[in-house]
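Q: Okay, next protein. This is XRE family transcriptional regulator from Streptomyces bauhiniae. I've checked the sequence twice, so it should be correct. Can you predict the 3D structure?
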Amino acid sequence: MNSTGPLGEFLRSRRARLDPASVGLPPSPVPRRARGLRREEVAALAGVSVDYYARLEQGRVGNVSDQVLSAVEDALRLDPLEREHLRALVGTGSAKPRRRPPARPGVRLGLRTLINAVDPVPALLQGPRMEILAWNRAASVLLADFGAMAPVDRNIARWLFLDPATRTRYPDWEEIAAPTVAALRSYRNPRVPDEALERLVGELSVASGEFARYWADYRLFEHGHGRKRIFHPAVGVMTLNYETLHIADSDGQFLSTYTADVGSPSEEKLRILMSWDAGPVDPETATGERPRQV
């Protein structure tokens, strides 16, 4: 019996990525038909029967003890985000509760004010489905004219996979695109139906073979901090630091900012770029809606 549910899909993807040698298994005398670990190898590493692990992948074991889950997590070398995801799929109650955000999230007045106040630091507010909810002038200069986009297109995932210009904007496009899909994967919870997310994933899977491939990898990612190379035709390539701030009481919204190392060539390029377009941002344009208290 093949496992067809979300739990089986996730567990198969995790054991498929593991090299048997990396977990201390000797070379197999029988050629492997697929990459990664076999079910019986995961079962042995976790200290459970092969039948029990097979039924776990098939979602047929009912309640799973914390001890067994921990053993499976260790056997599959899951990181903290993956462990949380597994427990959400199993439904143990150990994962953080998550509710479905509204299809059109609102933006608090204080957040809009903050985003405009930090200019010329580029700042971009997104929802958990990668919706672009608000941005400042600097973000439009650095990345794209989000105000000129149709509201449905104001989504980082749509922008990355459907706009060819992003492959020039990001010299390391794959290093940006893959984590974006992984963040969508991480947010998706099969126990909390989200029609807007499923529609987005479906449309992008059909429109982009690369998106479909990344989605099938079942990689998980949570936005944090790091560095990105961004190209702008006016100044060339800049290496910028990004920071992600998760917004409390916002149904999963997060703020991304971009800065350059002090004294670096990228800082000079960013300063020059921002000085060339120093006009104020229109709050109505930068949120796609008239300002209102939320």
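A: Here is a summary of the prediction. The radius of gyration is 22 Å. The chain has a mean pLDDT of 86.
Q: Noted. On to the next one.
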